[in-house]
Amino acid sequence: MMLDWLGETEAAQRIEDAVGAVVRGSEVQTYDMGGSASTLEMAEAIADKL
Question: Alpha-carbon torsion 48, 15, 11, 5, what sign?
């Protein structure tokens, strides 16, 4: 990620962990993942994990 390249490894890891938690959790899934959530709903779920 760009944050790793910029030396912000802790922030990069937090974002990667949040994305992973949401994707694994299956509570919020976009259409391409078999769900009905919008991109905004996915982004909000990820932000909530931060």
Answer: negative
Q: Is 80 exceeded by the pLDDT of residue 26?
A: no
pTM to 2 decimal places: 0.81
The pLDDT of residue 13 = 96
What Å distances lie between residue 9 and 4, 17, 20, 49, CA to CA? 5, 12, 16, 17
Tokens describing residue 16: 């990667």
Specify whether the CB–CB gap between 29 and 41 falls below 8 A.
Answer: no
Rg of the chain, C-alpha, whole Å? 12
